[in-house]
Each structure stands twice: as C-alpha cells, then as structure tokens.
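@channel sequence for tomorrow's demo:
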Amino acid sequence: MKIKNIDKVAERIIEAVKNKEQIIIYGDSDLDGVASMVIVKETIDNLISLLPQKESFPKVLAFSPDRKNEGYGLNEQALEFIKSKVSKGLIITVDCGITNFKEVDKANKIGFSVVIVDHHQPIGGVPNAEIVVAPKQEGDNYPFKDLCNAGLAFKLSKEILKEKMSSSLRNNFLELAALATIFDMMPEVGENEEIIKEGLEKIESSQRPGLSAMFTLLNPMDFNSKRDMIIKINSALNSVVIENHVPKPYEFFVENDFEKAKEMAKEFFEEHQRKQVSINNLTEEIREKVENGPETSIIFEGSSAWEQEHLGSTSSRLCNYFNRPVFLYKKKGDISRGTVRVPKGMDAVKSMESCGELLEMFGGHPPAAGFTVKNENLDRFKECLKRYFEKK
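structure tokens (generated this afternoon):
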C-alpha cells in the first residue's frame, strides 16, 4: 500500500523535469522542512543529471518563509518574492502548505502549479492544489500516519528514482530523515524506528560534508551516547537565519566543500551557545511571572521584545516545568505569531481549532504547533483556550 497520491506527485515531478519546467521547492525553515527540501532538491538533481541536455534545465530553486517577518507556511509575501524571481513554474511545498488555502489559490492565480507534500494535520479539508500528499488527509488509508516530513520526502524520493536510487544516496537521505524524525519529536515506532536505526547507523562517517564536519568538531567523550550527539547537532542546526528566503542550514547541507562546511558548522555551534543564554533568561523571566501570578489552566504570554526563534525552546521548557499548555507569542504591528507546546495526551491543534474563528492561521502537531492572531483578538483567544483546557 502507498500513501495517497504519492505516485501522482512522483509522476508530476518526472513530467516537470522532462518538460524542463521551472521547479521551486518551498519548505518550512526548521530542520524537518530543510531536510525535506534537500531530499527533494537532490532527488530532482539526480533526475536532471540523466537528461541529454541537462545544461539547459532551469536551476531548481529552494525557498522558505522568513519566520521573523512572515511566520510559517506559504504566504503572500513569499509568493511575491518567488514571482519576482520567476514568472511561472511548479511549486512543491514540503512541511507546509496543508492549511494555506488562500495562498495556494493566489499561487494558482498568478501562474504557478502547486503540489503539497505535508505531514501535518489538514484542517477543514485540503487546499486547491494540483496534487496533495498528506498521510492524515481524508481518504488516505496508509496505516502509518506519523512520519516526519523528511520521512515523507524520502518515500517520495524512492517513488521518483526507484532503481535509480543508489545505496549511497539512500543512506544519505536516511541520515537526514533520521535527524528530522528525532528533531520533530515523532513517535519512535514502526517506520520511524526503522528510519532512525538505519539513518544513525553510519552517520558519523557521513558522505555529506556538512554532517561529517559537525562530527569532527564534537568530542564523543563529552557525550553519553551517539543520540546525545545527534540532539546537540539538531539543536545547532535549528537556525532561523534566513537570507533572501533561503535558510542557512539548507545552504550548509548542500555545501560540497568540506572546509567551507566546517566553518559553517563552527558558526552554528557558536550561535547555539549564544542562543541558549537568551533562552535561559527568557525562560526564567516567564517562569517567575507565572509563579507570582494567578494559577490558570494555561500559560499565555507575549511581548514585542521577545525573539521569535527563542519561543519554541522556551515553550518546551515551561511546558515540562509546569506541566501545562504553553502559548508564547511575539507581538508585531497588528498581529502576533506564537508557538505552542502542550503536555503528553493533549492536542495543541485541536485546542486552536476550537478557537479557529479568532485566528488568521494555525497548524502543527498535537504536542507542538504555531499560530498567527490579530492583536485585537488576543484576549478572546486566551479566554477561549482557557475554557477548552478547563474542560479537559
């Protein structure tokens, strides 16, 4: 049994390569999104390498949303940026897109075809894309629903390349899928367990210069296990540094020069250390505020002074400490963009779905999600969430 429409997307991508269409890969800027972008990009590169006149094929482009200014997913600013680069083409969304109804309609209107490859939960149907691959969409009977998006991209790659996928390329993609599965906190059972086991088996001797460089900079004696080293690498690579809609980790993964990759790896580790100090301070600031305030069913805090990229880790720490749902947001102009973490057994997406009329956008996974809300609706959103969780 195959994931619904995965063969159709594979055929569509093969057709696009044969017809030399402009291809744009658009993915979330976190590690799972970036890993998905790399897998799809390098899969397409392998197809292009088989063309008789490969030099004439338009360069495959890869972009992400600017989280600081645009939030998550496909958005109008990003579409305008893409339109400024190319007039038409095939947009492949990875790790996003499944809740972007208006944006997909706009992409269609301005001359692009869109296919969605997204492991997130659809909300209220699926967008009007050419093809949608989403294991959790209605009518998909594939039994395993908990792949991270890089795992989904890996299955798509196998569907595209089939016997043309070399063992080295397969191992290379499995390494990325394993990192992303751990990073995205997917259940480590079934196919995910297999991906992690195979992907981490020889990762320390990875043929990808970036990963090889990272392991040369780490001393195994400083860690209790290889798994601890992976967590350190994942944390360092969860960078939101984006230039011209291209995440720095994406450039790192596709870098072929080992020495350049090593310099980039050093920068990631150094930036991670600086970031941890800021996250520690923010966590302590909010913890004191919560402990000195009235006890409620949720933690709901925000500020225009906070950095968006610090909210995910801070939310996780506070959720673990207080064992309560945590909604943190950064105010900007007329809207706020937030991050959600909830204790095991709760569902962040369903909680926001119950307040969906107040939100501009939301989505994610049961334990971790995000939202965009107009500032005028913040208080109503908070009260709606409190009512939802007080019933649980």
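heads up for whoever presents: The chain has two domains: 6-202, 294-390.
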